Amino acid sequence: MTTKFISIQDAMKKARLSQAQSGSSKLGQAKGEVAVRGWVYRERGSNVLKFIVLRDSTNIIQCVLDKKDFEKQWSEIDKVQVEASVEIEGEIKEEKRAPSGYEIHAKKFTLVGESNEFPINKDLNEELLGDRRHLWLRSRKMSSILKIRSTVTGALHEYFRSKGFYEFQSPVLVPGGAEDGPTMFEVKYFNKKMFLTQTWQLYAEAAIYALEKIYCIAPSFRAEQSKTSRHLTEYWHTEMEVAWADLDELMNYAEEMVKHVLSRVLEKNKPELEILERDWKKLEPSLKKKFPRVTYDEVLKELKSKHKMSVPWGKDLRTIEEEKFMDSYDTPVFCTMYPKEIMAFYKPRDKKNPKVARCFDMLGPESMGELIGGSERDTDLEELKKSLKAKGEKLEDYQYYFDVHSYGAVPHGGFGLGTERLVRWICGLETIKDAIAFPRTMTRYYP
Ligand code: 4AD
Ligand code: MG
pTM here? Predict the structure, then answer.
């Protein structure tokens, strides 16, 4: 008969159940045979006993191997190194002193894959951990982040689908940009030049005329020269676009989406947040309170009155200003109505106050900076052309985009969330690089 392996988490559950059934909670009374497999997380031994803390994707558990039960295999067991893959069968019982509260007394041991000396230890700096990222992923820190990230993307899909959105994909290779600045990666495309997409937006605007409510989670690329804790050159962009929506509705979606993600993470990932030593109570206000909505003008006023910082009207907010402003808030804040001239070409002027655009940024608390950028979209072709020209763009590159809004244009809008920025905030990470398995920045592109 083949052995039925179960996960470490299930093995502990089984032990708990059999303990409950035996009607006693005294130490050492939960009995049960289990077979588990995974990787050696830690090992230590004497000449009579070997302790292996075994790790699988679900948890860790201490296993004890007694030399007298393994005479023939002892030299193999004695030499086993961290990260070797092994199978262990034995009896599980509660053991308060063991790392996860349970212990397996091994009866059978199989070495599946030997390990070389694992080149990761406590003394490695961030650079070396980056070089060995392919191995560092196995750490409790990285695996906890990756589990939370999976909850986050799952919850994003769940949110949009529950609201009647279709998932819609756009090309990665594009003829031109949509966002300002020299942040496009060029790609040799046969004998032409193409770019890696910064946003799906211009294609999404075409598609809302067919599907009305759409979303996507896909890579976006930005040739960011900056080395900050919040910029990647390749990131997963969660974008949505809706027909007939105005700015308030867009912000409602953004707020509800973030709250949905937070509630899923708090429901599923408290053990991981604890491994990360993330004080998850700091996330609770964002679940309960409404996110404030303030205009750019109000932000300038508040910066001046509370923090003695004066920003000339018309200048974009710098990181330091955003952070100072956010110091007074424990939830994300929508900052709306930025000066039109410094905004991307597609953000429409406000009719009542033509100096500003109908747009928002959602700023995160705890110095996380911009999490989301969104806006209504301009459907006035003359305005669009004027803005593009002012930014030095060639109008012929945007012909299809003008065409899109020439057949039954409707009010519409959307937003883009930096998925890693959300993961970074939820996990409370120092740097955005840890919010993705294999980060890409100006200086980090291997492995
Ligand atoms: O503010 P951005 O540039 O807006 C757009 O691209 C719009 N077209 C989105 C839309 O309306 N569909 O980018 C949106 C979000 C930012 O708020 C930020 O969270 C994230 O994308 N982002 C980055 N994340 C990581 N690394 C970078 N270099 C990022 N640049 C933007
Ligand atoms: Mg932005």
Answer: 0.96
Residue 447 lies in a domain: no
Nearest listed ligand to the Cα of residue 338: 2
Q: Which two tokens stand for residue 412?
A: 């519409």
pLDDT at 31: 64
Distance, in Å, from the CA atom of 406 to the CA atom of 380, rounded to the nearest integer, reads: 9
The predicted pLDDT at position 25 comes to 52
Q: Which residue puts its alpha carbon closest to atom 4 of ligand 1?
A: 373
User: Which ligand 1 atom is nearest residue 240's CA?
Assistant: 12
Q: Nearest 5 degrees, angle CA 13-CA 14-CA 15?
A: 90
For the CA of 422, the closest atom of ligand 1 is: 19
Residues of the chain with pLDDT under 70: 23-31, 181
**Residues linked to residue 65 through DSSP beta bridges, in sequence order:** 50
Q: How far apart are CA 62 and CA 64, in angstroms?
A: 7
Nearest to 240 by CA among 227, 251, 225, 228: 251
CA of 242 to the centre of ligand 1 (A): 17
Domain boundary residue, one of 113, 137, 162: 113
Q: Which ligand is nearest to the CA of 419?
A: 1
Neighbours of ion ligand 2 (CB under 5 A): 373
Res 2: pLDDT: 81
**CATH code of the domain in which 34 resides:** 2.40.50.140
pLDDT at 24: 55
Two tokens at 112?
A: 């599946």
User: Residue of the nearest CA to atom 3 in ligand 1?
Assistant: 179
